[in-house]
């Protein structure tokens, strides 16, 4: 591994220098990327200073060893908190002011309300009204409902976002309009960054479907129930000030206490903190697309033929149509052989809950309930447990359970011939998605990406991904509708599948099949300006995201 | 508050100088108490250096404000832990060696197994066998089963204990035989000390009735089920190395995970980690003693007349016979008026579980199950929740719930005319008990001590307690079989009870009644050597315990 320092201006910002330097408009001093850049172990050019702080370039999987100590919050005293436990403050504005809302601080929120969140924007409405500037927003993810943040990014209320920048926020970022540099982290990386002191949260605002006046809170009860609150765990543990916002205040104790009131400074009661129908999507269904069903069938068959399914195995599948359909195939196999999965990782949904209730799965370890059945099951079934990025994903921990999962089914926007994969940018170069837990789950024992060979006549397998989010060495199998490619590093899987009836091909073969149909795709055009970075699970900088040349 | 520095030698180690300096045998250099002493805000003379570290004298309730930051453990990396999550090591000895067992370190254990613990002694057997010296043992409590530790204190394997020194260990300490200075902390103070970095645990050994190879653990399942594992929470979070010892290893995931494997380094499987019948005492019964029944009846009646019992109130009562009987009276009142207690604090037992199951109590928040019904209920009833010293008692937190409890029933070995109370030493000066959660619960809204006026013809109410464990301002009511004394600070209670049929008296009246019967008790005789200190919930030094003059 060598981190070669390169010139910052119009040098090759990626291995593929052609794509860059095509636009020259630099309409501001690049505050966010003023220092030198280096080529990291993934061969990507990344900045060494991010928003004024030094950053370590990616060194390879498991290569960077952290030195130092976890962040140490100030010691509090009960003498400074009400003896009757009542921390209720009349309004969010008052709570924010008491918590020390001021220029330049970091405010965090969580995304368990997904596109039904009514709180994050309110915080910045208040900050804007008070004339506060240069805030850093540290959400665990953002959604289309957060589009109003673009106006606060424009007027300087928010300097930059460290967290997913989806949809409108992604476009805004890709166009170079955000003042500071965006930082994309996985769910586990977000916990790691807070734990390690890379990100200091001044004020955490935790929207909670149920809470008591002391600040104990959970997401399983109440009219805006959203399941767990794990994405806010680090925030509660490490932020200077913690504000709970709820629309369902109950007398102490609020049990289960997914968030402990012992970490909480203030509690605010509002009429409504989320839009329930947008929190859980009741419409997540298995796919009806013949192509996707084929991907699901082949993925499941691959798992079975490779011996990955056994009595007591474990799996993680998302809530997408293909992943859900794979779960159906797994169910059939388990039922037929009278086997059980020891555990499944959620995002839970009605299909996974059905497996639990039928006894095909012993435990669901769940970071996010995706539908009402998921929420009900987590509330009522002790075998359906909420997890947090600490238990599941934090890489700077004495292990985490992502590496214990046998089969992990994931998506990707692009994969390259070295099995590197991208989930944040599209092939046109635009930042459009967050990382979620995707990077963290790559540590599973067999990582399978069922993806279409092309989307809108744009091949998904490329010479090089636009942005590396996952190093190829952790991605084992690509399942497409025209064949399955096994990572050459997995000689064990290649050996097991050598007599398979499934269409096993090389990834180069898959790529050329796609290019035969769609042609060789055009490369995205970028300026030499970095607008965001992708962190690896250990806090190092895996890749840079470049301003799109428009 | 003034902390006056006084001479260390044969000065008045307490207000009552007569009791001291009566013995002069100083058979060793007092390593444990070589520095200056001061008089603290409770009027007690305490050392300012404890086992080589500076200590802050008690400054009054809520007066000491901590500066600084929580202890910051080293950042770990998953790269250093097995990807398959299997941390099992063949033997405790091997685990201790891998964890860095060496001279002078601190080893912690928990006491959920109470007198049935089979692990703590084994650790020091191994250390002794290896010739390791000068260890500090940091148990959350000790029991008679730990008497073998005296030989390791004698031979230098253990330098000193910070934790309760009951029975034989207390006698050993009181006789000046322990090399270092004993430090007594409440359960909350123990958490606080670890959190604040006052005590650094090098190796935590957590005996767990059920665990998985990753180190997730709980106390609710398995042949040695003991209920919660909360007393080991701080140890898991802050120790350099954490060893789980179990006799019931199950496949991942071990749910509920009261201890998270993410904090754990090694897992050891032994045949038996505790003696079940000594873990839970199946014999805890309500009192049959007419005197104690009277205390119970008067205590309950006092609560009712003073308006402390209402629909939605909360209480904490221990597992002693008197406290249990008070619970029965509370039940009758609640049943009759169709009221419910919102929550009760355990130590749980069959009587409390019955209240929960009958619907007289909505929630049990439980730090320790005292019998099999308690254990069963915690395992199966989501309204019976395990707690930890962090949630319940940590004073250096943003509040804790001990101050939200309406009625707290406690015991004491002595009370003085200023309502100061003692729970650690007897009137003969010997250290015989630990503090447990006693200090922490003093923050409840009304603290009632039902105690006999004398024990073995020794009056319990004194001019001055032998050792102050609880400042009088936090103790509200003393109930004896000859009358009830209300703390003069509680003018509200005095007002409410002015027409009571109960025999309300002053504490001086109660004291002189006892002395009329038993005579004025002799004072214990001490040398001028400090053998242990009692910490207050905020880490300051509340009192010193002196070597008994023999």
* Gyration radius of chain A, rounded: 23 Å
- Structural class call of chain A reads alpha/beta
Text of the CATH class of the largest domain in chain A:
Alpha Beta
Helix content of chain A: 10-25%
Shape of chain A: globular
Question: What's this model, at a glance?
Answer:
Two copies of one chain form a homodimer. The first copy, chain A, is α/β, with parallel strands linked by helices.
How would you summarize the topology of this molecule?
Two copies of one chain form a homodimer.
Chain A: E1 4-6, E2 37-39, E3 45-47, E4 49-50, E5 53-54, E6 88-89, H1 92-98, E7 106-109, H2 120-129, E8 135-139, H3 149-154, E9 158-161, H4 167-174, E10 182-184, H5 187-195, E11 203-208, E12 210-211, E13 217-218, H6 233-238, E14 241-246, E15 266-269, H7 276-279, H8 290-305, E16 314-317, H9 321-337, E17 341-345, H10 350-358, E18 361-366, H11 372-380, E19 384-386, H12 389-392, E20 407-409, E21 414-416, E22 421-422, H13 438-441, E23 446-450, E24 454-455, E25 458-459, E26 461-462, E27 477-480, E28 483-486, H14 491-496, E29 504-505, H15 507-518, E30 526-535, E31 541-548
Parallel strand pairs in A: 6-15, 7-8, 7-11, 8-9, 10-30, 11-14, 14-15, 16-17, 16-20, 17-18, 18-19, 20-23, 21-26, 23-27, 28-29
Antiparallel strand pairs in A: 1-2, 2-3, 4-5, 12-13, 21-22, 24-25, 27-28, 30-31
Helix pairs in contact in A: 8-9
């Amino acid at each position: 591994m060598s981190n070669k320092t390169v010139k910052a201006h119009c040098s090759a910002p990626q291995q593929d220098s052609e794509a860059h330097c095509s636009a020259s408009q630099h309409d501001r001093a690049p505050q966010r990327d003023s220092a030198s850049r280096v080529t990291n172990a993934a061969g990507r050019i990344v900045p060494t200073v991010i928003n004024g702080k030094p950053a370590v370039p990616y060194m390879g999987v498991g290569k960077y060893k952290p030195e130092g100590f976890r962040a140490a919050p100030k010691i509090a005293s009960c003498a400074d908190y009400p003896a009757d436990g009542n921390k209720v403050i009349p309004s969010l504005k008052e709570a924010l002011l008491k918590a020390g809302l001021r220029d330049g601080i970091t405010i965090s929120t969580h995304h368990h309300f997904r596109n039904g969140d009514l709180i994050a924007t309110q915080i910045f409405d208040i900050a804007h009204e008070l004339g506060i500037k240069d805030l850093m927003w540290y959400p665990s993810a953002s959604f289309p409902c957060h589009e109003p943040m673009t106006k606060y990014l424009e007027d300087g209320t928010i300097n930059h976002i460290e967290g997913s920048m989806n949809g409108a926020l992604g476009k805004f970022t890709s166009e170079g309009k955000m003042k500071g540099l965006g930082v994309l982290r996985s769910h586990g990386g977000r916990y790691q960054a807070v734990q390690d002191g890379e990100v200091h949260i001044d004020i955490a605002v935790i929207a909670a479907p149920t809470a008591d006046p002391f600040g104990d809170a959970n997401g399983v009860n109440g009219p805006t129930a959203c399941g767990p609150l794990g994405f806010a765990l680090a925030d509660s543990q490490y932020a200077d000030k913690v504000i709970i916002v709820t629309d369902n205040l109950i007398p102490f104790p609020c049990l289960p206490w997914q968030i402990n009131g012992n970490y909480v400074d203030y509690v605010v009661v509002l009429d409504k903190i989320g839009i329930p129908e947008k929190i859980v999507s009741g419409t997540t269904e298995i796919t009806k697309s013949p192509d996707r069903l084929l991907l699901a069938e082949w993925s499941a068959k691959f798992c079975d033929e490779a011996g990955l399914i056994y009595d007591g195995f474990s799996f993680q599948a998302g809530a997408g149509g293909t992943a859900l359909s794979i779960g159906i195939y797994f169910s059939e196999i388990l039922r037929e052989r009278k086997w059980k999965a020891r555990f499944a990782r959620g995002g839970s949904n009605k299909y996974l809950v059905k497996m639990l209730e039928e006894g095909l799965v012993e435990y669901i370890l769940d970071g996010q309930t995706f539908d009402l059945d998921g929420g009900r099951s987590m509330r009522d079934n002790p075998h359906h447990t909420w997890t947090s990025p600490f238990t599941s994903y934090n890489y700077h921990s004495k292990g985490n359970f992502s590496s214990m999962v046998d089969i992990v089914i994931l998506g990707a926007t692009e994969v390259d011939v070295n099995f590197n994969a991208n989930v944040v940018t599209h092939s046109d170069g635009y930042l459009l998605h967050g990382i979620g837990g995707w990077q963290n789950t790559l540590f599973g024992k067999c990582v399978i990406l069922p993806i279409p060979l092309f989307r809108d006549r744009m091949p998904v397998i490329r010479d090089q991904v636009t942005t590396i989010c996952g190093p190829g060495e952790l991605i084992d199998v690509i399942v497409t509708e025209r064949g399955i490619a096994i990572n050459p590093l997995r000689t064990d899987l290649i050996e097991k599948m050598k007599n398979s009836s499934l269409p096993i091909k090389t990834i180069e073969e898959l790529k050329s099949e796609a290019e035969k149909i769609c042609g060789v795709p055009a490369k995205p055009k970028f300026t030499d300006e970095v607008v965001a970075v992708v962190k690896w699970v250990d806090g190092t900088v895996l890749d840079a995201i470049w301003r799109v040349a428009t």
